[in-house]
User: What shape does this take?
Amino acid sequence: MKKILFCLLLSFITLSVTAASKAEITFSETTHDFGTIKANEGSVTATYTFTNTGDAPLIIINVTNGGCGCTTPSYPKEPIAPGMTGEIKIHFNPTGRRGEFNREVKVKSNASSKRQKLTFKGVIMP
Assistant: This one.
């Protein structure tokens, strides 16, 4: 009986410690201003640096494209260890567009916080 109680107690402690470990994503900046760009100069890129400030590996599950084909995200596919940094790059193609733009992408990860929003803006000159 003592062995069973000991095993149950040990299992409970292990689950409690494991459940307390969480990844956490912290960005140095969540906005980017491209300023004025030309429509025919090709893609521009915004880089968002983040740190895993949690105590478990951080996994970026996906990054949305902002709702159009003009935006392409790239992000690390491998887990980011606690204390380590990574980058999410947003490539924006202004070809065929003009005027002001203000877009956002959302980062889904295994972090304890909700989806993170990354925004970028600028003005496209023809």
Q: What stands out?
A: The first strand starts at residue 25 and ends at 27. The CA atoms of residues 32 and 120 lie 5 Å apart.
